[in-house]
Amino acid sequence: MKARHNKKRNTAFVFESLIRELTSLVLKEDEEQKQKVINIIKKHFKEGSALKKDLECYRSLYENQNLDRFTSEKILKEVKVQKRLIDPEGLFIQQTELIHDINKETSSEIFNNFVPNYRTLASIAQIFSGKTSPKNQVVLENEIIKNMLKEEQSKLDMDSVDKLVYKTFVEKFNNKYDTDLLEEQKELLTRYIVSFSDNALDLKLYLNEEIARLKKTLKKAKEVKEIKADSDMLKKTVEIVQRLESYSKEPINENILLTVLKTQALVKEIYRDANND
Q1: d(C-alpha 215, C-alpha 199), whole Å
Q2: Separation CA 49–CA 44 (nearest Å)
Q3: How many H-runs (helices) and E-runs (strands) does the chain carry?
Q4: What is the largest CA-CA distance in the chain?
Q5: Are both 189 and 78 inside the same structural domain?
Q6: Domain ends where: 99, 117, 149?
Q7: Hey, which end of the chain has fewer CB within 10 Å, N or C?
């Protein structure tokens, strides 16, 4: 029977959840809680700790992309050696302390944060567990290696999907909003397409930065005279900022992307009008 995956004991999942929580707190400008999360990360993932060593084993498998098969297999082999060198009892104790600090200093809801590459992290955990059957071990290792391979090796599978997705997505946006795409919108769409092959890691980072930029710009826009003089426009601007903030804890989906795309156009229009006056 397949062993149940305990995500609280998955070092990489907890780390990614903390990073996602930190991003959310930065967007919300919650300095107190942000500092608590930073302190937890610094305390438990410091150099030389069992948690840091364990995290590096995970990251060597899910962050290394676009490699050849020979290099990927060598990395997997070395990672398994390094993982065995970590004292399991010491790691368990440090994980327990980390879980305790998260529950005490912040919130247990951190463990419910959406992590896009959760499935990959769960697969790596099974590989590390030593409780997987030989057959499943090989299947899981092949799956991880496939994720590490050069983009060209999966290009044939992705090309037709990419073109169809891009064409459909762009047409849907243009038909819905009747506008040409801005450069920042093209950038977002491009990263959205690439996200199909990299577990959305790059898209997640870009969206975090772009939403923070839009939020900051919209707050400044409240001082634009046309918006300042119109209570309805001012209210809607505040609502858009709140909506963008709420996205920090939601999985990335098409509705979020469309909202960000529309907000990008709105911001451009606000400042275009302001500059023309």
Answers
A1: 25
A2: 7
A3: 13, 0
A4: 71
A5: no
A6: 149
A7: N
